[in-house]
Amino acid sequence: MNLWMVGIDFMHAPLALREPVCFTRGQVQALLPRIAAARGVAACVLLATCNRTELYIHGAEHTEMDVLAVLAQAADFDADIYRAVSVGRSGNAAVHHLMSVAAGMESQIFGDDQIVSQVREAAALAREAGTMDAVLDTLFRRAVTAGKRVRTETRLTGVPASAAAAGVRRAETFFGTLREKKAIVIGNGEMGRLAAAALHARGAAVTVTLRTYRHGETVVPSGCAAWPYDRRYEVMDGADLVVSATASPHFTVTASAVAAMHRPPALLVDLALPRDIEQTAALCGSTVWNLDDLGDLGEHNTAERAAAAQIIKEEQAEWNEWHAYRQSLPVIAQIKDAALDRLRYDHAYNSLHEDADLDGLAALAVHKTVDLLLGGMKDIVIPERLEACLAHMKRGSGK
Questions:
Q1: Is-catalytic flag, 50?
Q2: Looking at 22, 44, 50, 224, which residue is catalytic?
Q3: Nearest in space to 131 (alpha carbons), one of 61, 47, 34
Q4: What does the pLDDT look like over 347-383, one tens digit per residue?
């Protein structure tokens, strides 16, 4: 299949090791051409989320590929440091894993409904970078289909559907109730908006910090107030809870700033990777949680998990069927040429050709080709398959 992947994720690598290989959208765009230039790489897709970095490669050759080494060389990090905390997969194992990821089955927050969009975005970036080919394109499209089917055909409930929901849910347990609690959300991206909306729904007084604000253009979750990001520490002083979810490469909340507050927040929840909140802020009397504190992969919803696994199995079978047919195309072309060569050596062909009997030539060509083809497949031909083939042919002929 010439398909390989390597993953560095929350299940195998601690946060401190995931951070250096947590790539932004711009970094992914820069890395893809470098990876594609590596020897033996026909196409590549790099999936980078808060909790996982995964590189998928379709190889130009059948030889084994060290995908971690390829990624390390492109991103300039020491592959040996990550050998013990990365997982490599190939062939069907890589296909199954990607579909499971897209379905939220491998997420830190089981059933995460954000991951399918992230898988779709990773594929889109590879197309933009010109590092996608038909094999990976079809694979990622099929994985997105698997993820969407799991969302619509199952109910993976019982655990939070996103890191934002998990953080808010745990915060509610921490305080006993969030009603009338003063909550500050730093970041107005998708994760920040989800957190702000969830906090507001539970009765908290929510303020969202914004780097820029244009009335009528900037979307702030309903019921939430807006505050300038540059003055965030002012509004944080005296707050009960702070949630930070940005794509900033720097800390949005430093320990020194928290230490300088008259009344630091009781709880700081960091939903970002790289981390937004300096961990030593906990020395100032605040409790600090990061993504590793929010996971819940409990064995919930056994029936729904089984239904999701069946969907993944079906989508993987569709992919395998497509890939097997694609791999067979060169042989199919050779079979056509071989059938034509055999036909030209047939005495009946020469006689019909001399008489210009077109109908006879057509009938002979069809019968000869079918006999030759099925004669080479006697050990796998069964009536049910032939009947399915016949039905397919009749649909095309209108009979």
A1: yes
A2: 50
A3: 34
A4: 565 665 666 666 666 666 777 777 777 777 777 777 7
